[in-house]
Amino acid sequence: MPTTSVFKISSFSIFVIVLLGFAALFAPIIAPYDPMAQDLKNSFLPPFWLGGTSEHLLGTDSLGRDLLSRIIFGARAAVYVSVIGSFFAALIGVVLGLLSGYFGGALDALISRLVDAWMSFPSVLLCIVLAAVIGPGLETVIVAIIIIDWTRFCRVVRSETIVQKSSDYVSAAIIGGLSPLKILIKEVFPNIAPLLVTLLTLEMGIAIVVEAILSFVGLSSSHIPTWGGLIQEGRLYVNQAWWLMGAPVFCIVVVVLAFNLIGDSVRKRIDPVLRA
Amino acid sequence: MFGRYLMLRLLLAIPTIFCVAVIVFVLMRIVPGDPISMMIPPGASPDDIENLREIYGLNKPVLDQFLIWLNGIAEGDLGRSISLKLGVGQLILNRLPATLELVILSMGIAIFLAVTASVAAIRYKDTLVERVLDTFTGVAQAIPDFLWSLLLLLFFGVILPLFPITGRLDPSLSFDPITNFYFFEAIFTFRLDVVWDLLAHLALPSFALAFPLAASLSRVLRGSLSEAMSQDYITLAQVKGYSRLEVITKFALRNALIPTITLSGVQFAFLIGGTVLVEYIFSYPGLGNLAISAVVQRDLPLIQGLILTFAVMFVITNLLIDLSYALINPRLRGR
Amino acid sequence: MHTFDRRRFLKISGIAAAAPLAGSVLFSGCSKGSDVLSIAYNVPLPSWDPTTGPSSVNPTIQTYYKAVFDSFIDQNPDLSFKAGLLTEWGWNEDRTKIKMTVRENAFWHDGSPVTPEDVVWSLERAANPESGNPIQFVWSKINNFSISGQEITADVKEFEPTLFKWMAFLTGYVMPKKAYLDRGAEAWEEQPIGSGPYMVEKFERNAYVRLKAFPQYWGDKPEFETVVIKMVPDASARVAEIESGGSDLTLQIPYEEFNRLSSKGFSGQSYPVSDIGMIFISNREPMLDKNVRLAMHHAIDKKAIVNDLLLGFGTPIDTLQAPEYDAFESTTTVGYDLELAKKYLAKSGFSVSNPVKFTIQTTRGYKPKDYEMIEAIVGMWKQVGIEASIEIYEIAKHFELRMQHKLAPAAFYNWGNSIGDPSTSTGFAMFSYSPHSAFKSPEVDKLIGPLWGEPNEEKRIEGYKNVDRYIADEGLVIPLLQYSQPVVYRSGLSFTAHTAGFILPQNIKSA
């Protein structure tokens, strides 16, 4: 792929992600209405370009709630679960991956077996089961993301640590008498950080999809609108108001696409084999 | 030589499966709430409850419970479903063929789409075709299978009602198969009406599963194809006067397919456990649908049995993939 | 336009594909002819035993049972009683004995005749606590059966005024003694045997059941030889089923879709049924506080829900009695009053800034707009200082939780009462010894207790009206509305609405 195209795609991603972050951070300020405020008399208003009013730019849902405000608050929920979920999944995965890769031996065997076994679980089913037993809520979604996705980080970090361990500067540090903890933090970790960024970006996209899945089966929060929840609510009225389902689907697709593209371009930049 | 490799791989799979069993068991026990409370019939006396505990072995120490459960698994007994009042193993075996048929068809479609798209993109490199394909691949990958299901359901359910949208086989067709592999059985018994109906029912769920899969397969295939295209033997073929399409399909594709097949194998293993929501949306009577109803009913023995089944199938599929490589490529055996 | 449907398309293409290869297959290929009726139903069938288990008291699954089994006594679509397997029934003078006559020309699906022994066995089994019949305490009020010819007499242990009504209601089905005992419970689930108009040909759990008309049925022969009931719990999938031609008839879809499909050439009926929407309150925190309960009730604008959300389909109610029921009392009202609700909450120290919090359970897609109704109510509550989180459950789960007294503090449910008696609405829903009650209150028990065996019908109905008044004043349950059931079907069918909400395939004809 020509470099210009990578650059262009990245600017699309950056635009989307900045917009997402902005919407999430300032949701209460920029959202025109309380996303839960109902107005049964004004339900199913169409978006402004389909004959609706400028008061409800994207129209209203079956309970007369403002769709734009719900989408904006939905962005907040999406960012919340994907940032926290990805961070903790990464934390667990990185720590176990570093230990397993650096120390090897029985510890490595144990962790590797655990990862193998863990990866063999059907992830969608596992997170539905978890959410069902913990009870619905955004925190449940976060827990599900962490539990199903820490292995992604662990595997990559482990193999990368093994590579790093055999490098000259780590050998030098070992001879220099640095403690394993210091070596891991000061020498190994900075070298796997770029890889971690790629994984994290890809994970954000995955996390948003996990949230959508759980809301879809009714296991996310009922206090704050989520994109998956909006899809589930909207699909009932696709013949009356297709935008109720169309808008959240569009948001998910665009955001996941943006994260995927960033992940791709970062991977290309840091991975010389792929870049060629 | 191969026999030894086989033994080694099998031996390695055992601790993984054991680990799987431990995790399943632990996950189900740390779940808040008493599993027995879900099984109590109305008006049960404390004696009855104690009796139930006895039957399910829930009055014993946790370690004993685990051993009992393991022992049951070893004897092929996965317990009884609380909500359906049938043996878990039997329920799973009844549903498994439906899921396998769906997964196999989806995989076939995905590979077909991926190969077609990649060949086209390389053939029409640096043209509008490539750009369009790029966009499609990106979007197809960004839409998870359950969203694809909803979109297909909308489109084919309402706008263009070509395909049935729920179930596996039109219930009014009289077809009484011996096995639950309806599709294969219908082919072997020349019930072409049934084959056709099964395919019509499979169409939407399998495309929903195939689209994102095809996108990720085609990314890998594109990469290895364009790498192959820069090899010497390709230049040689071009010099010999083969058309570009011929060069791609006859020479480059053959070499570029190996990494894609590797990925397909891994994806296949993931797919078996990944049909849950798609089956649910299309009311397709496979394992995934069974799993959703088990979760909704909080049917612990069934959930436990299902997760274990999925995990074991994942391990076995991976094992089979590894073994087939070793069979094809003896150099790998040493690893 | 819709007459050229998907099914025909598939059939034609199916034949086209099959023809060159196997001519003999051709005819079985077009098995889905006009004699097949396909129904997309909203609730899956959990069990083929209509007399035991928590779901046997679920009014919505009676549709399945009514097609395959016969009740002791049957009901017409207007809910008046008619002969079922019993042709005559009644009390003796002093109500110490009952007498029943069993139909002579009835057969089981295995070909053997229905005998008085079967009826007695069914009644004794229902009365046996070990069988797990949830209504056992009604059935146990008669014993000591004796048979002479087709006539059965039994002793009345304790007078139960609604006994014969129950014979037409939940768990009031006759089962074949020999066939059931020979096969055992497990095989029964695969292939049940009844005496109703249809027999089970194939049952695929959570997917569909295929019924075949029973040639030896004693009543009128149903018009459709084969009936397929598909279990489609998702409301939008049911809409798609009917729109794509995959099913001929469906029910419980959003009223918007009902209106849209009706204007698109489909036939539709939406009719009031003996079914109400209500919120069960359990006696646990924070529901032990009367102020909270009353505030919850006063804060709900039922009129707005019926008119704006349900497009006018439905009738708001304040007691567990719909207007058609025997003990309906129009003067017992609760009223929508936000200020009053706030006042009640303030008495217990709650406000918008310090809301009372709890979980409310609801189904989704089971009844039209069930989930949205609860969302709307939660929105109304929010304005006065009540913060409820919504948890979705399946209807089968509701029954289990209710029997174990483990429902959330508030739980949305629908209560069907096709016999219209107050004992089967208020009585069973509120009497604490009933396994179906959620709020257990000794005061209510004191009021209801004497009414169970009250022989004076007028006094009994009056008594229940008083109970309803007390319950409304204490806020022990939140009745919402009487449902109107939307049914949509392809043109060319004629469908008879049954006030109990049953979709009886035997009553569906081609127009």
Low-confidence stretches of chain C: 1-33
Distance between the termini of chain B: 13 Å
State the secondary-structure class of chain B. mainly alpha
Shape summary of chain C: globular
Q: Sheet with the most strands of chain B?
A: none
Task: Tell me, rounded to a whole number, the average pLDDT of chain B.
Answer: 81
> What is the helix fraction of residues of chain C, given as a range?
25-40%
- Relevant CATH superfamily of the largest domain in chain C: Dipeptide-binding Protein, Domain 3
Radius of gyration of chain B: 24 Å
Whole-number total of structural domains of chain B: 2
Domain count of chain C? 3
CATH class of the largest domain in chain B: Mainly Alpha
- The second-level CATH architecture of the largest domain in chain B is Orthogonal Bundle
How far apart the termini of chain C lie comes to: 18 Å
What is the CATH topology classification name of the largest domain in chain C? Dipeptide-binding Protein, domain 3
The quaternary organization reads as: heterotrimer
CATH class of the largest domain in chain C: Alpha Beta
- The number of E-state strands of chain B comes to 0
Structural class of chain C: alpha+beta
Structure description:
The complex is a heterotrimer of chains A (276), B (335) and C (511). With 276 residues, chain A is mainly alpha-helical. In chain A, 74% of the residues lie in helices and 0% in strands. Chain A has eleven helices and no strands. Chain A is elongated and about 75 Å long. Chain B is an all-alpha fold and 335 residues long. In chain B, helix 1 runs antiparallel to helix 13, helix 5 crosses helix 8 and helix 7 crosses helix 8. The two termini of chain B are 13 Å apart. Chain C has three domains: 110 residues, 3-Layer(aba) Sandwich (D-Maltodextrin-Binding Protein, domain 2), CATH 3.40.190.10; 127 residues, Dipeptide-binding Protein, domain 1 (Alpha-Beta Complex); 213 residues, Dipeptide-binding Protein, domain 3. In chain C, strand 14, helix 13 and strand 15 form a beta-alpha-beta unit.
In short:
The complex is a heterotrimer of chains A (276), B (335) and C (511). Chain B has 335 residues and is mainly alpha-helical.
Describe the protein's topology.
The complex is a heterotrimer of chains A (about 280), B (about 325) and C (about 500).
Chain A: H1 3-25, H2 27-30, H3 67-103, H4 105-119, H5 123-134, H6 138-165, H7 168-175, H8 180-216, H9 227-234, H10 243-270, H11 272-275
Helix pairs in contact in A: 1-3, 1-10, 3-4, 3-6, 3-8, 4-6, 5-6, 6-8, 7-8, 8-9, 8-10, 9-10
Chain B: H1 2-30, H2 46-55, H3 62-74, H4 88-123, H5 128-142, H6 145-159, H7 182-188, H8 192-229, H9 232-239, H10 244-273, H11 276-281, H12 287-296, H13 300-328
Helix pairs in contact in B: 1-13, 4-5, 4-8, 4-10, 5-8, 6-8, 7-8, 8-10, 9-10, 10-13, 12-13
Chain C: H1 6-18, H2 26-29, E1 36-41, H3 62-68, E2 73-75, E3 81-83, E4 86-91, E5 97-102, H4 116-127, H5 136-139, E6 142-148, E7 151-156, H6 163-166, H7 177-190, E8 198-204, E9 208-213, E10 226-231, H8 235-243, E11 249-251, H9 255-263, E12 267-281, H10 290-298, H11 302-309, E13 315-316, H12 338-347, E14 356-362, H13 370-382, E15 386-392, H14 395-403, E16 410-416, H15 426-430, H16 442-448, H17 457-474, E17 477-489, E18 493-494, E19 509-510
Parallel strand pairs in C: 1-10, 1-11, 14-15, 14-16
Antiparallel strand pairs in C: 2-3, 4-5, 5-7, 6-7, 8-9, 9-10, 11-17, 12-16, 12-17, 13-17, 18-19
Helix pairs in contact in C: 10-12
